[in-house]
Every structure is written in C-alpha cells, then in structure tokens.
C-alpha cells in the first residue's frame, strides 16, 4: 500500500504544480491526501466484496491526512486549496477504481435446515404469542369505534387456528396455581371446575411454559389424559412411559454431549423394561476333526413378556421421578387431565386411591384436573368429613367461569376491530364458558367475513336462531327415548315450529306437556328457560344499544342465567325476569 501511495502523491503534486496550484496546496497536504485515496479505494473495494474487516486502513489514513493536511495548508485562501484537493481526489479515486478488478464476494455460510426451521418457529411464536396480542390490545383500547353496533372486523388469526394455548388469558385460578407451585418443592394440586371452564387450557398453558419464570431453566412437563377404559395399573404404566419419552426429548434438546446422561439412560432402560424383561442366553460349541478344530459361540437376547407388578411399577416410577428432580435444574411437572371422565362418585374415588401411590415425590409437582365434586369433598374435610380427595391433594384450585371483564380481555387480545357490544354478545351467548366463548367469537368472525358492516341486531338474530335450532333438535332427539311417547306428541310439534315471538313461544313450550314423566318435564323446562334467555338477548342487543346501557345491565347475571337454563331452569327464569325488568 505504501508504494501506490507515494506514486499517487508524486503524481498529484506534479499535476497540481503544472496547473499552478502547488503553492496553494503544498507538498505535505498533497501527498497525504493522495496517500489516503489508495486505502480509501481499497476500503470501497472491500465493502463491495462484502469484507468490512478490511476497512480499518481507510479510517486511519484519512484521519492522518486531514490533520496533517490542515496543518500544511496556507492560511490564505485555504478554501480554494481544499476544493482543488477534492477535485484531484475524485479523479484519482475514479482512476483507481477503474483499474481494480471486480471483486468476487465470498460464499455465504450455509445455515442448517434444523436451525433455520427452529428460528422460523421461534419468530412465528414471538409474533403470534407476544407481539400481536399486545398490539391488538393496544389498538382495541385506543380505538373508538365510529359505529359500535356495526360489525367492522379486521383480523382474528388466532380464532381461525383455534390454538387454545396461545389464546389462554391469565385468570385468578392460574395466578393461584402459579403461587402454590412456586411456593413448594413438590406436591399434588387439583384443578377443579365445571366442564368447559378452561381446566385443560390451564394445564396445557402451564406445561407449555406460559407460567414459567423466563430466567429459570426449562421444565420437564408431561401432560396425559385419563381415558375411561384405563385401570389404575395400565394408566400408571402409560404415565411412566410418557414421562420417560419426555425426559429423553428434554435431555436430548438441552445436552451438548453426545453421550447420554444418567437420566436419559434410565429413561431408555425403563422404556424397555415397561414392555419386556430381558434375558440373555449364551451358547458355546466346538468340534474337531482331521481338517482342524472349529470353535463357535452365540449370544442372544430374548425378550420375555413378564410385566411388572403394580408395586414394582410404582417403585420404579417414583425412583425415576426422584432422579429427574435431582438431575434437572428445572421443575418436574406431571399433569393428568380429564380425570373426571372416569365418572362421578365411587369410580373416581377408587381410581384416584390407586393412582395417588405415585404422588408425593420430592421435587415433583402433580397437577390433576378433577370435577367440582372433588372440590366439595375437599372443602368438607374442614368439618371432619375426610375423603380420598382430601388425602390425595395438597390444595384444590377452582377454575371458575369467565366474567365479563376477563372475556373482554381475551377477545381484545386476539380479535382486532370487534367493538364492545359484540364482546358483550359473545360473552352472553357463551354463558362464561371459555370453550363456548371461542366458538361464539368464531361464529361472529365468520359472519363478519361473509359481509362487512353487519348490524348488531342481525348478528344477534343469526346466533339466536342457530342456538334455537340446535336446542330444539337435540330435545326432539332426546324425546324419542322417553317412556311417555304418546304424551310428548304436542311438545314435538311445538319444537318443529319456527317462532316469531320468542317470549310467547316459551310459554307455548312449557304448556305443551303436562304428563307424569319427570325426564320429559325437565327437558320441557330446560327448553322453555333457554328460549326465554334467547328472547332476552334479542331484546338487549339492538342497533340502538349504547355502551352506557350495556354497563347498566349485569352481563354476568345474564351469562349465569344462560348456564342455569340447562341445570336449574327455575333459577334461570328468575334471573331472566329480573333482567327483563331493567331493560
């Protein structure tokens, strides 16, 4: 680099002297400025070639040229000298760049497909679970709908995918469960609540890491369901196998060494042992003759079909969980979902009494979803009425129905452009059930995609007619198996009608049967209460409704009446009558 710089300095000085500018620029400034052109050109070439690390000479020489050149400039007319130096610099840079060969950029490093796929998955998760929910919430809270009773839906990708884990919204039940797990080094916790309230979503979100401190190590989380057919031995066997597979996947994904650790080795060994008991057979034989001597041997591994006994299975499972809790820096979480599917009463108690043998492992947290009956039995232990639920769980967390505030928070996070009246409509039709809220919101989204700017009354009418049709069809199907087929004829005819006035239709349904069948009477009362609820929804959600009017109505009471319509029709009708007087 020094030789081209000196040549450039001499050439520049001779050229400037020829034109009479040497006096103004001076030898030092001309040489240093010309010397700066060479590394500058090389730096530009390195930039074009994609090698920024070769740019360091450019900054050093330019700095020296500026400092020394300014010192060498004459005090008079230094502006003219600087302009002349700039002209010469441009000419020399053009000449140098024209003589340099075209640089070939180095080949780009190939990124492994697995790493690229993992990055894409991570970026998609950040977008869908982090950015969009917060962005949707901010936009919905900051935007005031110009026409709140018109369906002006923008986006709802989470409802289309129906990913309930991503749509999970923290509730008081989840906060209590997080507090209990964080405050203990192990234990068993029951998650109780009605079906559809969100117990499964809470367990999935917990096992998926939604409630884990991001500064702590990842959890070893296992989530299994408890089908009705399982006997305790088979269920524990299945739970043990799932835990071993999860441990292998967990250690493989977070271990840099090729050699498996003690936890992965134990998991592989237990997976083999859960299916078979290995036995080894060795045979050695030899023979001799005139042509020589021959020795042969054989070693075979035979897999016998003797299964572990239940005490052996429980012992090995507890030992494996203790090893996992000792080896892993994170928590060990075993979640059992849908235990209430086994049945109510004695079947569930008997099953839990057998399965709880694997509970109470130090360092391991068990999360079990149970029915509301388990919570009742657990609470009764405070007055001396102990049960298997009380002896199996340390605490019981109740997952209650969503209230209007939490339902609105969920919809604002995952639906963009849905105004408050439509939030209230979706909540009322869902009855506070998280699963039904997602279904109702998805139905509203579909209506908004079919035609924009649908009025609120039209959307409410469409939802009400669909709900009425499903209720009447389901009731008619149930009436075909009752013991009073002759007495239900009038009720079946009423169920086939398409009413205009729902209040009058509800009275017609209630008066259509006066027989002695208790089952038919319960079905009749449930349909009548459901029709009155739908009529109340139509009366409330009109095109002239305002947010002030919705705030004056107890929407939580309306959702509660929706739930009572199927379980306690008389209580539901009382709530609806109270609401009608305030409309």
TrEMBL record:
Source taxon at top rank: Bacteria
SMART domains reported for this sequence: AAA
Species this chain originates from: Saccharothrix syringae (Nocardiopsis syringae)
SUPFAM superfamilies, per the entry: P-loop containing nucleoside triphosphate hydrolases
Keyword Membrane: yes
Residue ranges crossing the lipid bilayer per the database entry: 24-43, 55-73, 79-100
Lineage: Bacteria, Bacillati, Actinomycetota, Actinomycetes, Pseudonocardiales
Keyword Membrane found: yes
InterPro entries: AAA+_ATPase (IPR003593), P-loop_NTPase (IPR027417)
The protein, known as: AAA+ ATPase domain-containing protein
Domain spans labelled AAA+ ATPase: 185-400
């Amino acid at each position: 680099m020094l030789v081209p710089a000196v040549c450039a300095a001499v050439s520049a000085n001779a050229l400037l002297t020829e034109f009479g500018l040497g006096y103004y620029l001076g030898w030092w400034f001309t040489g240093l400025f010309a010397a700066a052109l060479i590394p500058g050109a090389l730096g530009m070439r390195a930039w074009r070639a994609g090698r920024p690390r070769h740019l360091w000479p450019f900054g050093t020489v330019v700095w020296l040229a500026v400092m020394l050149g300014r010192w060498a400039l004459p005090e008079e007319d230094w502006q003219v000298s600087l302009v002349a130096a700039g002209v010469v610099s441009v000419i020399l840079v053009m000449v140098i760049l024209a003589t340099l060969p075209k640089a070939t950029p180095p080949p780009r490093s190939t990124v492994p497909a697995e790493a690229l796929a993992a990055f894409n998955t991570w970026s998609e998760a950040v977008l869908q679970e982090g950015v969009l929910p917060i962005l949707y919430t901010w936009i919905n809270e900051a935007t005031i709908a110009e026409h709140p009773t018109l369906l002006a839906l923008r986006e709802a990708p989470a409802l289309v995918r129906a990913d309930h884990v991503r749509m999970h919204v923290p509730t008081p039940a989840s906060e209590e469960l997080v507090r209990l797990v964080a405050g203990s080094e192990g234990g068993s916790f029951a998650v109780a609540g009605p079906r559809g309230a969100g117990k499964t979503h809470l367990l999935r979100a917990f096992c998926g890491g939604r409630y884990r401190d991001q500064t702590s190590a990842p959890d070893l989380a296992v989530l299994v369901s408890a089908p009705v057919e399982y006997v305790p031995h088979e269920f524990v066997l299945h739970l043990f196998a799932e835990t071993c597979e999860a441990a292998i996947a967990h250690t493989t994904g977070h271990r840099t060494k090729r050699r498996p650790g003690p936890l992965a080795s134990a998991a592989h060994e237990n997976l083999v042992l859960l299916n078979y008991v290995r036995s080894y057979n060795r045979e050695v034989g030899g023979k001799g003759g005139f042509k020589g001597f021959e020795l042969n041997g054989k070693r075979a591994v035979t897999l016998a079909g003797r299964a572990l006994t239940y005490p052996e299975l429980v012992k090995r499972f507890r030992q494996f969980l203790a090893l996992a809790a000792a080896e892993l820096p994170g928590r060990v979480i075993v979640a059992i979902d849908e235990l209430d599917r086994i049945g109510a009463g004695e079947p569930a108690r008997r099953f839990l009494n057998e399965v709880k043998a694997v509970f109470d492992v130090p360092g391991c947290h068990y999360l079990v979803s149970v029915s509301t009956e388990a919570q009742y039995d657990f609470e009764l232990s405070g007055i001396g009425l102990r049960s298997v639920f009380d002896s199996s769980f340390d605490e019981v967390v109740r997952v209650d129905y969503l209230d209007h505030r939490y339902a609105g928070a969920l919809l604002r996070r995952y639906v963009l452009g849905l105004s408050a009246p439509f939030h209230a409509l979706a909540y009322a039709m869902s009855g506070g059930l998280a699963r039904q809220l997602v279904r109702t919101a998805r139905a509203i989204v579909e209506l908004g995609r079919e035609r924009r700017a649908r009025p609120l009354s039209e959307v409410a009418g469409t939802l009400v007619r669909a709900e009425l049709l499903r209720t009447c069809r389901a009731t008619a199907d149930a009436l075909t198996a009752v013991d009073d087929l002759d007495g239900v004829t009038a009720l079946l005819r009423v169920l086939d009608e398409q009413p205009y006035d729902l209040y009058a239709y509800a009275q017609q349904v209630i008066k259509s049967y006066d027989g002695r069948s208790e089952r038919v009477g319960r079905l009749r009362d449930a349909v009548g209460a459901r029709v009155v609820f739908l009529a109340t929804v139509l009366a409330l959600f009109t095109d002239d409704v305002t947010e002030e009017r919705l705030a004056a109505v107890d929407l939580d009471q309306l959702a509660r009446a929706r739930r009572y319509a199927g379980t306690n029709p008389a209580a539901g009708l009382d709530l609806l009558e109270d609401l009608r007087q305030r409309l």
